[in-house]
Amino acid sequence: VAQLLSQTNTDGVQSSLLLSLDGALLACSGYTADTDARVLAAIAANLWDTMERCSVNGGGGGGNSSSSVGGPSSGVGAGAASSQAPAGLQDMTVVCTNGSLYIAYVSSILLCLYANATVPLGMLRLKAAKLADSLRDPISQITGK
Per the record, which residues fall in region Disordered (predicted)? Predict the structure, then answer.
């Protein structure tokens, strides 16, 4: 899995992570230290949980559509995520001063890509969509979802 994740870490994408919805780091690849990857996973899961609760409660997340922080977003892949993931939040982008964090729901786990500020958000999203497509079936077989 780490080898597949590492294929995404090019052209400014610094880290790729798979994490559980509660923030446990399942796999990672990239230029971050192991401690940094665990912290990033915990932050990403916390952001995801907060945005998910806001969208479910009608607190500004957009109901059953995808929610985004820092830019528009409508799900990973061309319709693939909407048929696999439950209604609600599908993906989100967090734009920070030093880079961007893209988080997507893939078969009951979260895929997180961290990129520096030079990476266009569309390219980050495209990389995540391709990686999610590659991971969806194997993860579904393992998790049964």
Answer: 59-79
